[in-house]
UniProtKB/TrEMBL annotation:
InterPro entries: ABATE, ABATE_dom_sf, Znf_CGNR. This is Zinc finger CGNR domain-containing protein. It comes from Streptosporangium pseudovulgare. Residues 140-181 form the Zinc finger CGNR domain.
Amino acid sequence: MEFTFVSGDLGLDLAGTVGRRRGERVDLLATPADLARWTVEAGLLDAPPDVDDDDLTRARALREAIYRLASAARVASPSTAPSSETADLDLLNRVAAYPPPAVRLRAHGVLERTGDLPAALSAVARAAAELLGGPHAALVRECEASPCTRLYVDLSHRRSRRWCDMRGCGNRAKAAAFRARAR
């Protein structure tokens, strides 16, 4: 299984590790090894951290909290969030409070990123907090391609982006529309 990073935000990319949320869910973080690999592919750490089942459970809880908060941001500002989101905000803020990965510049411009899983998740939580507490919160959209439910930040020129990724969902939607017109 491949991870994709097309959401425009690390928090939304973590939330995007669940596909088809309103159908038969596809969880790309099925094992602790998947989560460790995701942290490297997301560019958070250079080496996979140690991850156990409890860590995976905590990461999934963060993922779902980010998804709920970002979904709510699509219709209201975070300052008007209902009290039911308090637990999600508390979780996000608690994870964001942990120190992020250490970054070190080595010889010849080589960047080194080190840390443990809590550090990597802290970077994700911080990114989500920055997004949801900033001006781009109003630009969070959900992919229009069925059955995709990925959230993304629409930074297109006219704010008219319809799909999470033109190469995947957008291409399939346009091909389906073409086939429908051809019939």
